[in-house]
Design brief:
about 280 residues; alpha/beta; Rossmann fold; N-(1-d-carboxylethyl)-l-norvaline Dehydrogenase, domain 2; six-stranded parallel sheet; 13 helices
Amino acid sequence: MKLTFAGLGVMGYPMAGHLARAGHEVTVYNRSPEKARRWVEAHGGQAADSIADAARGAEIFLLCVGADDDVRQVVAEALPALPAGAVVVDHTTTSAVVARELAEKVAFVDAPVSGGQAGAENGQLTIMCGAEPATFARVAPVLEVYAKAVRLMGGPGSGQLTKMVNQICIAGLVQGLAEAVHFTKRAGLDPEAVLEAISKGAAQSWQMDNRWKTMAQGKFDFGFAVDWMRKDLGLVLDEAARNGAELAVTRIVDGYYGEVQQLGGRRWDTSSLVARLEKPA
């Protein structure tokens, strides 16, 4: 298919690469042209100088950018150039509000992802989609190129709401893990021995398997950044204010991430919650 991918960040760059390797004709756009040129050197295809140029002729226009207003701007610039029948797929984590808004203007799939940079690079993302069933059916085979799971969760906005559930789970889990690592050290236990003892039982999680050791070592220079998590939790808390959900723990953990930002950890991995527990008194 003829595809466009706008936004070649840590997620979009490898995702677009998978599409090219699968045989699709891919045009890319990035605000920093140099990154788009590097992508073309690595994967072929072509780089466009503007969003409108990138959108011309695209059967599916995919994007992965920053926040609600970024998505609005990109889609607004793409719409006049997209051919009739084109579908827009948004991999950005945004509000459900913007997804529903854009679904009224174009065939639209809100498709936030989970799995982080490693999942994008390895083609093992989980993609939660909100769309009309016929629209989803058109894009699902394309999304499967870089995913281990692609699921339609409901109508427009449902993918973003599901991603919010994902972030609620992660926030509470990582805080619990941070306290466990902190307690382990204060109790004079060997963190690696504790991990070996408890990671095969009910306490096991992806976060434990992948972040316990680096949390114990105070290493946070990889993975999903605190700034991004705070953006996502802000979306969660805004939605909870609309639907009446009680999210006391999520609200507390969001505040803890604010403390990590004040420690200079804006770009640290989300597992850096442990740093606020171990900062000097």
